[in-house]
Structure formats: structure tokens, C-alpha cells
């Protein structure tokens, strides 16, 4: 199983600040997915990136897939307390319909 | 629209006890999954079912068994619980054959084994 490394593990910031979290690997992926998990709930899909160099925006969240398709980043502009949660990246295994997750980044946005 | 429903929400077991975690989805998905989530380790796949009647081991299957009862239901059984199985368990479902179809998760079962 290929390894997805997410950094930082934990991030605590003030409301209004910008931040970037990373998802890295030494392997090439056909695509990556980003999920957000709020306390007491299951993860929910935010976005899927497929093409090397692709940039996708979801309101204040910007997702980028590296040119070599080995890494991805999530940038949040003007973070809000509602952005608090665990951010997980994941890839789908080549064989079978199984999703492999990174360990995640815990984000806490203080008001 | 209920989506993926897991029961129970919380459970405390003593070492050696057995229990079954229940999962049902109403989205007519063929694929279903069981993951466990531990601090600092993300979500790890325990078992997977591509369709009714089929199951496959994931990354951490030891100590668990599963049953795909029908298209809607996929249960996870701990035959003899161990403290190492203390975790939050998530069931998920997805549509197979559609590239990059998302996983839809339930809200988890928090299990403590003492």
C-alpha cells in the first residue's frame, strides 16, 4: 500500500488567517480526493483532483494537484471557525474499489 | 434521506466479549466498507464488499469478521474483543464502476474495550 503523508498534523490559527495543508507521496496517483470530517461525524468528500497541475476552488478552499501527480495541497483563505475539522486526503487503489487515507490534518480555527 | 446508518453509536465491551456492529445504506450502492479510525493513523480499511455475496480483506482484518446480508446491510463482528480494538468504526458505501465515486460515510460507532 502506497503511503500518503499529510502535514502539518495539527494547525491552530485565528479566524481570518490563511493556511495551507499538504498531502505528499513518492508514488504517482491517477487522482486524489480530499475529505473533511467534523467531530462526531463521518468524512465528507470536498473534491477530487485528477489532472496534473489541476486547480479546483470551492468557495474559500483551493485545491491543487501537483504536476507530477505525487502531491496535493489545500489552501484556505480567511479561515473561519466553521472550517474547523480533520482534513483527509485519499487515493483509490489501482485494483479494487478501495480508498486509502492519509493520517489527516486537524485544523482548529479560533474566533 | 438517511444515507448510511450505523448502530450502536457507543459501546463498551469487556475483553473477550463479542458484538456485531450494524450498518445499512439506502442509496442502492453496491460497494460497502468498514474502516477504523485511531488518533494519528487516519482511516484504515478493515473489510470491503464489492457487491452482495462478496467480501474482501482490507489492511487490518485480524480479529474481525463481516457479513454482507443483502445489498443494504453490511455488518462487522468482533468475536473476542481486545483492548487494541478500541477505536471509532466507520461504515461507508459507494457506487462501483464510476471512476472516483465518493465514499459516503455513516457517523461512526465509538467502541471501548476494557
Distance between the termini of chain A: 39 Å
- Give the structural class of chain A: mainly beta
What is the average of the pLDDT values of chain B?
A: 94
Please identify the oligomeric state: heterodimer
Order of helices and strands of chain A: EEEEEEEEEEE
Q: What gap, in angstroms, lies between the N and C termini of chain B?
A: 36 Å
Main interface by residue count: A-B, 25 and 27 residues
- Whole-angstrom Rg of chain B: 13 Å
Describe it for me?
- The complex is a heterodimer of chains A (111) and B (114).
- Chain A has 111 residues and is mainly beta.
- Chain A is built from no helices and 11 strands.
- In chain A, 0% of the residues lie in helices and 52% in strands.
- In chain A, strand 9 and strand 10 form a beta hairpin.
- Chain A starts with a strand and ends with a strand.
- The model of chain A has no long low-confidence stretch (mean pLDDT 93).
- With 114 residues, chain B is an all-beta fold.
- Chain B is built from no helices and 11 strands.
- In chain B, strands 2, 4, 5, 6, 9, 10 and 11 form a 7-stranded mixed beta sheet that branches. A 4-stranded antiparallel beta sheet of chain B has the order 1-3-8-7, with no helix packed on it.
- The mean pLDDT of chain B is 94.
Which features characterize this protein?
heterodimer; A: 111 residues; mainly beta; six-stranded mixed β-sheet; five-stranded antiparallel β-sheet; 11 strands; 0% helix; B: 114 residues; seven-stranded mixed β-sheet; four-stranded antiparallel β-sheet; 49% strand; globular
List the helices and strands and how they pair.
The complex is a heterodimer of chains A (111) and B (114).
Chain A lengths: L4 E3 L2 E5 L4 E6 L7 E6 L6 E6 L5 E4 L2 E5 L5 E6 L8 E8 L6 E3 L3 E6 L1
Chain B lengths: L3 E4 L2 E4 L5 E7 L5 E7 L5 E7 L6 E2 L6 E5 L5 E5 L8 E8 L9 E2 L3 E5 L1
Please provide a brief summary of the model.
The complex is a heterodimer of chains A (111) and B (114). Chain A is mainly β and 111 residues long. Chain A has no helices and eleven strands.
Amino acid at each position: 500500500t502506497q503511503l500518503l503523508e499529510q502535514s502539518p498534523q495539527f494547525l491552530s490559527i485565528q479566524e481570518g488567517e490563511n493556511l495551507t495543508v499538504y498531502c505528499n507521496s513518492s508514488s504517482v496517483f491517477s487522482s486524489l480526493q480530499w475529505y473533511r470530517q467534523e467531530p462526531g461525524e463521518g468524512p465528507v468528500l470536498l473534491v477530487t483532483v485528477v489532472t496534473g497541475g489541476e486547480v479546483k476552488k470551492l468557495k474559500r478552499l483551493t485545491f491543487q494537484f501537483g504536476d507530477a501527480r505525487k502531491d496535493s495541497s489545500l489552501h484556505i483563505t480567511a479561515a473561519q471557525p466553521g472550517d474547523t475539522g480533520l482534513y483527509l486526503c485519499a487515493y483509490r487503489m489501482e485494483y479494487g474499489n478501495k480508498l486509502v487515507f492519509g493520517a489527516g490534518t486537524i485544523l482548529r480555527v479560533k474566533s | 434521506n438517511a444515507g448510511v446508518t450505523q448502530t450502536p453509536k457507543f459501546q463498551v465491551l469487556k475483553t473477550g466479549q463479542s458484538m456485531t456492529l450494524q450498518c445499512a445504506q439506502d442509496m442502492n450502492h453496491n460497494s460497502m466498507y468498514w474502516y477504523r479510525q485511531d488518533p494519528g493513523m487516519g482511516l484504515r480499511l478493515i473489510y470491503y464488499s464489492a457487491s452482495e455475496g462478496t467480501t474482501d480483506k482490507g489492511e487490518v482484518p485480524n480479529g474481525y469478521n463481516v457479513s454482507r446480508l443483502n445489498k443494504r446491510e453490511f455488518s462487522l463482528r468482533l468475536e473476542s474483543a481486545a483492548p487494541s480494538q478500541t477505536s471509532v468504526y466507520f461504515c461507508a458505501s459507494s457506487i462501483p464502476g464510476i471512476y472516483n465515486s465518493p465514499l459516503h460515510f455513516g457517523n461512526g460507532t465509538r467502541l471501548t474495550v476494557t
